[in-house]
Amino acid sequence: MSTNNSQLLIYTSLITSRISYIFHFIFDEILGIEYTIVTNIDSFKQSNDPKIAYAVENTWTHSAFFEAHPLLHEMMIKNQEMDISEYQNYKIFFKTSEKSILPFDLFAASFYLVARYEEYLPYHADQFNRFPASESLAYKNQFLEEPIINQWCMILKNRLITMFPTLDFKTRSFKFISTIDIDNAYAHLHKGIVRTFLSGTQLLVKQPSKLLQKINVLRRKIQDPYDNYEYLFKTHQTKNIETIYFILFSKYGKYDKNLNPKNKTFKSLVKKISSLYPVGLHPSYASNKNFEILKNEKEALESLMGKQITKSRQHFLKMKLPNTYENLAALGIEEDYSMGYPEKPGFRAGTCSPFNFFNLKTNQAGKLKIFPFAIMDVTFKDYLGSSTSSTLIKIKKIISSIQKVDGLFISLWHNESLNPSNDQFSWRYVYERMLDRTKNGS
Ligand SMILES: [Zn+2]
User: How far is the CA of 211 from the centre of ligand 1 (A)?
Assistant: First the structure.
């Protein structure tokens, strides 16, 4: 075997689909290191390359031994025993014996989180039949707000550098993508006579001040409070922000309240946005029960934009594993941006880095790429009822945790949150400070 000291040789007795998946994620995607996996112990022993062994038993006497938890050699989904402890101030689980170079199986633990293992086990769903943060290992053990897999990988990197100073790691740098969901293109305009009349009547009874706003918007005396598109275009251009818009383009329903896809103003708004930025589908709540609805929404939006859609994010972040991702992949979606909890900020999959979907039901990796988001406006505004100042503190904390691991920060905002206001307590103010933070790290 040739000697190439910038590459890593990894021995494992059997290359399972779980092992090749998680090695790819950790060594390729996060650490940016070239590696080869071998199952022949003799050629492994003979090689002069930097090398490590990942196995249940240490059949090799060298010190670079990573003891394997059974998880990555299994094919089924079953309840796993969890023993949370701490190592270098980080939460860890799947403990190993003293023979192992790390006190836990970093690969199995990362797989458990990133493949969303716990979402395939029985759980108490929320009112929209979603997997709630409160059921997750990360939330129960206070590490939901840490990109824990990326942090573990920093430990791994340091260990590897100490053992093999010639190893080559590709350097990555912090990156930011702002993503915007359009659930309600306009608050009052273009809703059609019947919807306008009915909601006006309701406001007269319940919120007379909102009725006044509505009348003034309809008379074009003030701007529609959801019409913040020019503001977003200008701000993102000035600050050079990478942006993706996700548009709800569906029939009207209890949880799907955007404008009618046939509405002229709505159509020209969609065209305008798609001429400037990547646009993804925002599959309606109703589409979760019916593949045909999902397909129709995608085709309608594609035909309006004259472009293929390859990106998607679930409206209400409603998803069920693996069905939702299977359906999206079947429709030609390549990137999904739904991975995050509606009710809590943080890292649902334990990482800020994009990763391929691993289908635990078929025990195979898929082509669909998952882009996890870390914060959403509605989480703070509605679910947590946080003040804008405490929200800003939390957002800055999360951004700096991502900056420390040179990761990807994805935020999720709605056009509805960004109405014009000059004061320091507006959500637009929070949004702008968040953007600044991603630029200068101050
Ligand atoms: Zn939505």
Answer: 24
Give 315 Cα–ligand 1 centroid separation in angstroms. 4
Phi and psi at residue 254, in whole multiples of 5°? -55, -40
Beta strands in 24-142 (DSSP E): 35-38, 51-55, 65-67, 85-87, 90-92
Q: pLDDT tens across 69-84, in order?
A: 999 999 999 999 999 9
Return d(Cα 354, Cα 407) in angstroms, integer. Answer: 9
Residue 128 confidence class, pLDDT cut points 50, 70, 90: very high
Distance 284 CA to ligand 1 centre (A): 8
Rounded to the nearest whole angstrom, what is the distance from the C-alpha of residue 336 to the centroid of ligand 1? 14
pLDDT band at 224 (very low <50, low <70, confident <90, very high): confident
- How many A from CA of 51 to the centre of ligand 1? 47
C-alpha 148 to ligand 1 mean position (Å): 27
- Check: CB of residue 336 under 8 Å from CB of residue 369: yes
| Beta strands at 335-336 and 408-414: parallel, antiparallel or unpaired | unpaired
User: Ligand 1 centre and the CA of 406: distance in Å?
Assistant: 29
pTM score, two decimals?
Answer: 0.93
Architecture of domain 175-186+226-440: Alpha-Beta Barrel (3.20)
Q: What is the dihedral of CA 287, 293, 297, 303, to 10 degrees?
A: 160
3-class secondary structure, 396: helix
Q: If we measure between CA atoms, which residue out of 182, 278, 228, 185 comes closest to residue 432? A: 228
If you search the block for the tokens 């009915």, which residue do you land on?
198
Spatial distance between the Cα atoms of 86 and 93, rounded to a whole number of angstroms: 8
Q: Ligand 1 centre and the CA of 409: distance in Å?
A: 20
Angstrom distance (rounded) from CA 286 to CA 221 = 35
Pull the structure tokens for residue 188: 């009052």
